[in-house]
Every structure is written in C-alpha cells, then in structure tokens.
Amino acid sequence: MVPITTIHYLVVAAALFVLGVIGVLTRRNVVIVLMSIELILNAVNLNLVAFSRMWGGLQGQVFSIFIVVDAAAEAAVGLGILIAFFRNKETINVDEIDLLKW
Predict the structure, then answer these.
(1) H helix or E strand, kind and range, residue 26
(2) 32, 42, 43, 90: which one has the fewest Cβ atoms less than 10 Å from its Cβ?
(3) Taking CA 18 as the corner, what is the angle to CA 15 and CA 22, rounded to the nearest 5 degrees?
(4) What is the model's pLDDT at position 102?
C-alpha cells in the first residue's frame, strides 16, 4: 500500500485548479463561472492544508479557514447580484453583464 504524500495532494489540487480555470475561461453562464471560482479557491485551500501538514504548522489551516469564509461571502454577494441582474434582464449570460454599466 502506497502512503499518501504531499505530491498526491498537490496533483489533486492542480487538477481542481485547471478545471476551475477552464470553467472560468470557457463558460458563459455566470453560475458556472462562480462555481469554477470556488473550485480554484478549494484548490488553493488544499495546497495550504497539504503544506501545513508537511511542515507541521497550523498557519496554512488557519489561513484556509479564512479563505472559506471569504468564498462564502463572495458567493453570497455574487448570487445577490446575479438575482438582481436576472430580474432586470431575464438572462444570466456573461456577455450581457456589461449592461449594468452606467
């Protein structure tokens, strides 16, 4: 049985990060873009926890908790803006978000 090392965590985090970046760059649905940003933040959290475990400190885990709180606030604000936009324009297409400009 192979022990799980830091490299295994980094490979999973890299895969999550790449999936998140692909989702942000290729999708036009705002909900998918927000979920892709969450994937990117979770990849960063996984890296922080993996390195924190490797070095034996708690700083990475504490910082990861702050990122989770920030991601929750970002999701709440983003979904609020998305609901307001959908009520006005009846679409959630990224190409039409520039209509919110003054």
Answers:
(1) helix 6-26
(2) 90
(3) 140
(4) 56
